[in-house]
Specification:
Strand content: under 5%
CATH superfamily: Farnesyl Diphosphate Synthase
CATH architecture: Orthogonal Bundle
Shape: globular
Distance between the termini: 33 Å
Radius of gyration: 18 Å
Order of helices and strands: HHHHHHHHHHHHHHH
Largest sheet: none
Oligomer: single chain
CATH topology: Farnesyl Diphosphate Synthase
Length: 297
């Protein structure tokens, strides 16, 4: 369950080979990020699409239910070694696109390895005892993605890293809430702090069976409040000098903050449906932020 540039559940369509181009992967994923990238200058957009494709590929390796776990671990280890050793041991068209990015945008290749470590952890860890454990996972699969994205977007102020981290937590927590039912049904994973589940009288069996209860409602209210705090923190730390370069990230924040509010307004019926914004509403957000980007606002 990766944030794959701030969209942790946008899956590529089944059957897309790793030899597909980054543009093909982005197009088939139909992700919110792919929409947001439309407001970037051409070169940065191409590089972000390459980075997005990298995140999509490693996440899809981790989530492939038809491949044995040992084989998935081996594939992810090869990718990890390759990003740290100039592509050694792996031939992939997307790899050749992302290898120049750390030097070009001045970030450590270790960040790419951290993203792989995050998605790889899904092979073994499907429960989280505390919120600290869960946030450590969110950091690798969402916040690190945000830090790399900020570099490619052209952010110059160091505080934009703080923004990327806070927004990464907010986006990933929103996705976790939205996908509680889907994660339980499809993989048996529960990305909710177990101590908070116990506090509200919600058992693993309740989640896996899709049982809605007053306790589950209270549990989700606690997650909502936490995610909302991170959205607010992100809004407060983004430096004015980087607001224009970070317009795509701000757009993603708007989309997912609205999804968070839809979850609450809908009573957190996450076992019954997966909340999303309409295409019309996303187009409105895209248009608004695209104009803001042009105006430097």
């Amino acid at each position: 369950m990766n944030a794959a540039p701030e969209d942790s559940r946008a899956k590529a369509e089944p059957g897309v080979p790793h030899s597909a181009s980054s543009a093909q992967i982005a197009k088939k994923s139909k992700s919110n990020l792919a929409i947001a990238l439309a407001c970037l200058p051409a070169e940065r957009r191409r590089d972000m699409i390459s980075f997005y494709a990298f995140c999509r590929i490693v996440d899809d390796i981790a989530d492939d239910t038809e491949v044995p776990v040992d084989q998935k671990r081996e594939q992810l280890a090869r990718w990890r070694f390759a990003v740290l050793h100039d592509g050694e041991g792996l031939s992939d068209c997307i790899l050749s696109e992302i290898l120049p990015l750390p030097a070009k945008y001045q970030f450590s290749p270790q960040l790419l390895a951290e993203i792989i470590d995050g998605v790889a952890s899904d092979q073994d860890k499907v429960r989280y005892a505390t919120i600290d454990e869960l946030l450590a996972y969110c950091y690798k699969v969402a916040c690190v993605v945000g830090i790399v994205s900020a570099r490619i977007f052209g952010a110059q102020d160091a505080r934009s890293d703080e923004y990327a981290v806070a927004l990464g937590y907010a986006l990933q927590l929103t996705n976790i809430m939205r996908d509680v039912g889907e994660d339980a049904r499809e993989s048996g994973r529960i990305y909710l702090p177990q101590d908070e589940m116990r506090k509200h009288g919600v058992s693993e069996e309740d989640v896996l069976a899709g049982r809605f209860s007053p306790g589950f409602l209270n549990l989700m209210e606690e997650q909502y409040a936490r995610a909302k705090r991170y959205y607010q923190e992100a809004a407060e730390v983004l430096p004015a000098s980087d607001r224009r370069s970070m317009v795509a990230a701000r757009m993603m924040g708007q989309i997912y903050r609205e999804i968070l509010e839809k979850l609450r307004l809908g009573g957190y019926r996450v076992f019954e449906r997966r909340e999303r914004l309409s295409s019309v509403r996303k187009a409105m957000i895209l248009g608004t932020y695209w104009v803001r980007g042009l105006l430097g606002r």
